Amino acid sequence: MAFMIAQRAFIKVYLITMVEQHRGYGYQMLEDLRRDFKALGYAPPQSEIYRALHELVQQGILYRTKQLKGNDPKVDFQEIVLYHFTSDGEEKAKLYKKQVKTDLDRCLGMLNKAVSDNF
Amino acid sequence: MAFMIAQRAFIKVYLITMVEQHRGYGYQMLEDLRRDFKALGYAPPQSEIYRALHELVQQGILYRTKQLKGNDPKVDFQEIVLYHFTSDGEEKAKLYKKQVKTDLDRCLGMLNKAVSDNF
Fold first, then answer.
1. Of the residues A3, A34, A47, B90, which has the maximum number of CB atoms within 10 A of its CB?
2. Interface residue B51 vs chain A (CB under 8 A)
3. What is the mean pLDDT of residues B86-112?
4. Which domains does chain B have, with CATH numbers?
5. Do B5 and A113 touch (CB under 8 A)?
């Protein structure tokens, strides 16, 4: 058992939730995570987010599609990467989130205990 | 800024509190920490605890003394290592704890946010 929850697991849970909410745009997920945590002084590293997405694809939870950003390919060739659940991905994701929830609760217990024992 | 609080800092705060409470017995601190966290599924590694004590000595916060365990040295030669605050150690320790408290609060904020955002 690690001391605290792993950054990778923490990020994966957020990515799953974003896909659940149909917000599975590759680059936008990165931007959203950074914006949401800025006030808490945490900047999720880009490399961690891309590794987390890669793992979710490897685990058979997500798959990728690409679409052009603009409507006119002559004007805008930029591709957007989109993430979706595989056929049994949403179920697998729920199980994974459940495991991570247990670890989040364990960590909250340890940190709350440390505050009450030492301060 | 690291993702979560470092194990070393977490342990150092507990060791400082134990010395504040006049419970600065080397081996007993290790035993107490292990007992207190057993229910939470965390076993502070012995090596981490000894490195944390070493750092607190290096930082000029604590110093060590030794005493024999039994009253009769002919019967029991086992030495006990005791930790005490240096003359300005308690003040330095308070400052250190204050820094760690800030980080504990930051981590609690992140974990509570993750629970409310994803569950």
1. A3
2. no
3. 97
4. 7-118 (1.10.10.10)
5. no
